[in-house]
Amino acid sequence: MFPVRSTLRQARQFSSTSRSLSVLDYFKFFKKKTPSNTPQPKQTAQVIEEVKNNQDKITSEAEIEIIGKKNPRYYDEEVIAENLKGFSEKYWIQGQSIKQGDVSELLASIFNQHKVTPDDKPIDNLYLRFAIFKAVQERFGVFIPDSKFTFLDSYAQFESTLQNLLDPALKTTKKNEFQPDAVDFNLEEFKGTNVHITKHVFKSEKEKKYAELLEKAKLEEEKSLENYKSSNSTSSV
């Protein structure tokens, strides 16, 4: 028998692989689309023309505060009371008229209330020391800077600080009418800390001092030139 060759054509199957996505495709998929109501850029001439046409429609209800004119919000008691709407503030440090001679007795009572013996032993409990620190300010009606808290660790330190704060000779003020809101710092209170206080010098004072030094330098220069000329003339003779 002779072998029979098949005449049927075999069809090749079409196959394809999916394209792998990259990291950039991920960002393209989640890219925010520009909304249709986004303002589009305009020509400068067009913007100027729109402002001219609509300038009569612009209304402003905000009141402009004029510098130099007194504002009743700051000095009129009725206006202030109306704006506060019943709000009141209570200061935790009230002014007290305590003399230096009463410091030891009152301070000892505060220490006894906190169950601490009024002696020279340091208070290691920071929570207890802070409670005494606050109670002392409330009872004596004086403000003690937070920077002093580190040093106030015993009865003796508290007593010494209060004696200085209540000393009538040290109760001097440096306020003046030109700087009513100025804050006066005592340099002694910040000794041993990382706080440095320098005196503020106004620009006008700097310019005045600079002009004085410049004038002095010019006079010294002229004087030195005259001395040089006179010495040369003497040597030539």
Automatic annotation (TrEMBL):
Compartments, record wording: Mitochondrion
UniProt cross-references to Pfam families, sorted A to Z: Ribosomal_L50
Keyword terms: Coiled coil, Mitochondrion, Ribonucleoprotein, Ribosomal protein
InterPro entries: ACP-like_sf, Ribosomal_m50
Coiled coil: 203-231
Protein family: Belongs to the mitochondrion-specific ribosomal protein mL50 family.
Name used for this protein in its record: Large ribosomal subunit protein mL50
Organism: Pichia kudriavzevii
